[in-house]
Amino acid sequence: MPRSANDLIDIPATLWQRPAMIEALKQRDIGRVFQLVAQYTGSSQTQIGIACILSQGKVSDIERGVQRVQELEVYERIANGLRMPPAARIALGLAPGEPVSPLPLIPSRDGASPIATSQMSPARTVRQTTGRRTQCGDERS
Question: Is 0.70 topped by the overall pTM?
C-alpha cells in the first residue's frame, strides 16, 4: 500500500535517461513527459495528477497539448511529484537541489517549521518560508 501520493508511481531511474525523455524535458514538453511516464510505468492520468497535485482533466489537457505548463511553480510541483532526479530537473531548467514537498503548507502552532498536509503523508516536514503569500493572499510566517 502506498505511503504517500508520490508512492503511487514507481518510475524506473532509466526512464529519466531515455533520449525521448531528455528531449521532452529540454523542450519543457510536460505533455510528452506525462505520456512517457504513463507508458513506462502503467500509471493513469489520475495517479500522475495526484502525485503532481493536478486534476486528471488537467493532466489530460496537458498530454493532448490543449494546455501547456507555463508557471515555474507548476514545473516545480511536477518535478517534485514525479521525484525527478537532479539531471532531469536540470534538463527541465530547474535547480538540481533536493525537491521540497509539493503539498500545501500550514504553520505549526508551536512555532516550529510548517508541515505539509496530506492524509497519506501527515508528518512530512518541509523548509520553513517567511513572507510568502498563499493563494488566498494571507501572509505566512
Answer: no
